Amino acid sequence: MAFFVLGLDILLFALQKLAVLLRISSGETLGGWVSFLAFVCFVLFSWLLFRWLRNQLLWRLRNRLIVTYVFIGVIPVVLLVTLAGTAFYLFAGQFATFIVTSGLNSDLKSLGAANSAIAHELAASFQRGGPADSSALEGLRKSDQAWADRQICVWMDSKLVLNSVPPGVTSEPPRWPSFVKPPLRDVVRDHDRLFLRAADTVQAGGAKLNMLSSEPLDQHLLENLAVNLGEITLYAKGLTLRKVDQQSTKATPEGDSSVRVRKPDGQYVLDTGKEPLVPTFSAGTVPPAQRTGDRLVTFATSLFVVNWESGDMNSPAAVSVQTRLSVLYDRLFAALGEFAPAIEFALVAMVIVFAVIELFALMIGVGLTRTITRAVANLYHATQRVNRGDFSHRIAVKSKDQLAALETSFNSMTESLQKLLAEQKEKQRLESELAIAQEVQAQLFPKEISQLESLEVHGFCRPARTVSGDYYDFLTLNSHRLTLAVGDISGKGISAALLMATIHSAVRAYSLESIPVQSMPAAVGAVVGSGMMLGSSLTGPEVSPGALLSLLNHQLYESTPSEKYATLFLGIYDGESRTITYSNGGHLPPIIIGENGGIRRLEAGGTVVGLFDNMAYDEGSAQLKAGDIFLAYSDGVTEPENDFGEFGEQRLIELVRENQHLSLVRISEIVTAAVDDWIGANEQPDDITLVLARAR
Known about the structure:
By secondary structure, this protein is α+β, with helices and mostly antiparallel strands. It has three domains: 2-57, no CATH class; 83-239 and 277-332, no CATH class; 445-695, 4-Layer Sandwich (Phosphatase 2c, domain 1), CATH 3.60.40.10. Helices cover 44% and strands 23% of the residues. The strands form seven sheets. The chain has a six-stranded mixed beta sheet, with helices on one face. α3 (61-127) runs antiparallel to α7 (339-387), α7 (339-387) packs across α8 and α10 (522-528) packs antiparallel against α11 (545-559). The longest helix has 67 residues, at 61-127. The protein is elongated.
């Protein structure tokens, strides 16, 4: 594209010269296109040159690091120095204008204090019946140079009683505007002249005394302010202050220069107009430079001026100050006395030290690039070998710095990759086995439940992990008897799932098969009872819940580690008598919720199963009336916590009680949904198991 535009530009240039020779009027038009295409050619070829230089110079990592050091170390320093210099200049300008404005404010305060004192003195004189005597003011003019140019006017109930002006000056007294609300201390504009004015009102007997002191803001006052500062220029006219209309999108007329000013009642625009400002007064001289680098500081600020005719402040004045940094330094550090040069020396020394440190850092950075590039080249070559599958490649480490540690780390990484691949294969094998375990465990939970004529049952279990340590089962013994089992295995994961499968198999075996009496532990005899005629064995349905728990406790104690145990509730429901006979081995007591809302807890039993040998378990029984709900659960239902505490047993009971007219499946869904809401976005902490039964 660049060469195409260049060729087109050369062609048009040739046509332009031909048009000039043939005196054709289109030569000027072609000249414009030639200039435009020449500019486009310059941009395109500049970009091509930049790209070529970048590719040539920055291909090597060493050059890239040098450029990086420049951008990181040099350019930020330049920017910071520029920012600091700009901020220092602005601070110096602000300080210069602050000296002027603070001087004016000091004069206003002095004028106001004197005005108030004289007003009270005159009021006291009028109360004593004396006349308005200006002789004291004349003496004050002679003794105090500050009073030489001041005009004093006094009104008694709107009647002028005193007009004291400087000697040799004939001046009409200013009027007392209606907008004045004493005490007033302001710069005012009266008949296109600026004055410092102070106004006070005091009571003189039954009359009201108004006193106004006025001092012109003229050449003489500026000369006093410019002493030991520099040149001060006053611009009394040419500025307009206009409030910004928030609904208007155009703040100033086109062509005007303006500055935004924020005041308590809104934002204003300070317009300087289309014409340049004309100075009204200029006083003082710019001091000469005292040393190299003693820069000239020029800064301006605005003065809010009250219009004495209308009371508005729409025509401010401006003050410009020209001075030297050395003058501002002397004014700023005048209170430090002999310590000021020491501070100056310390600042200069800091600048020099920082510059040396920056240069030294840049040199070290450039010197270290060679070692960095060598290490990067070794790493690049090694990654290419690894990319081809050669994990046996190792980098030869020849130094003892961090880059050497990086090379060592790379060697360690390749070795770890070899081990990781082997571990990944092992992990995939374990995950496959875990999935199989999940499928096997899912088959252990009852799929199809044979409901009794007088009892409907439902169970639900949701593991916190892949496999569960909770256990529940429904085992139909005959047409009117049903065994209910609910348990919780200590621990989680595969070990808990295996123990759960053991308990599942043992409960079913002991419930359905014959059990030799000789194999029973001694504690079972106490549970079976002394009134029963025992043969050589007991059939499963003849074994009571307490005996089953004793058998399971003995088996788990003998076959599992000492830290493994389980909580287990076993109940046998008899449909003919509508009675559930149970024994609770350390599990959370199931609850029977009556149709009228009453609750009964099934607490009879003993300690956990598998922790101690030869344990006897008490039995209990409960009558189930039509509509009563049997509720058994694991701690994964009641113990989840959030910011409000645990979910709790009482909340579970209330949920079941409020929805006991619904189906058992629906009640289970409502409870699990409530637990999920309670847990929120957190991970499910434990297995959730819920067993429900309702008498019909």
